[in-house]
Amino acid sequence: IGPQLAPHRFDQAKVIVRDHYTVNANWKTILENNRECYHCQVAHPEFMVANYDAGLPGDDRPINRHFQALKAAANQRWEAMGLQACNADYLDGSWCRAARFPLRDGCVTESLHGRMTAPLMGDLPSEDVGSLRIIGLPNFWGHANADYGMTTQVIPISPSETEVIVAFLVREDAVAGVDYSPEDVAAVWRITSEQDWQICESNYAGIRSSIYQPGHLSLAMEGLLAEFIDWYLQCMKENVNVNENVNFEGFLASG
Description:
Layout: H1 2-5, E1 13-23, H2 27-34, H3 40-43, H4 63-81, E2 88-89, E3 96-101, E4 131-136, E5 140-144, E6 149-158, E7 161-171, H5 182-207, H6 223-239, H7 251-254
Antiparallel strand pairs: 1-7, 2-3, 3-4, 4-5, 5-6, 6-7
């Protein structure tokens, strides 16, 4: 993910906000929530100001065709700027992924209004760089925008509790109260994160019910979720002594 992330220069950035949460849900529930966005239109209106809820691998809704055309045009602009626009999708079986996504028309960052909330990061050539999404399995995701970065770390405490740390970074020479407001920088992702924790807690309460039964994953919209589960099962198979009768075959195929 180095070539995609390098122009944002996080080595020349500073943490301005660090939020700590204790979520009453299993860590895997939180990761599964993050690996799909078909809930975003209903659950995250603030996030949807600047973002599309389409375009992720495994999301084959018709809107994807429109999104893919937008992304192709954005990739051409970014490559012309000297940015590496092609995705790094778990190359050679790695645990990380980076993909740059276009934002909605009139938006240059993930903010409540789509406008910049802090100075341009690092060596970026323009505000028009979309949002670089990074996933690090099994417990990290982050977004690198034109003006700030957001990182989320998911730490299991127990089967039913998870610590989550959400941090926000801006360029190191930016001055609080002059160049940025910490509250403005953190606004969208603080709201979105807390909405997700509520969803995950409700979901996990249902999972713990005595009448809960697992359902199937959607072939159209949950490809990334299936990839995560397959990856996790493969790690278990390689690193844990398991009952030989356990079926570790592809989760997407078996449901």
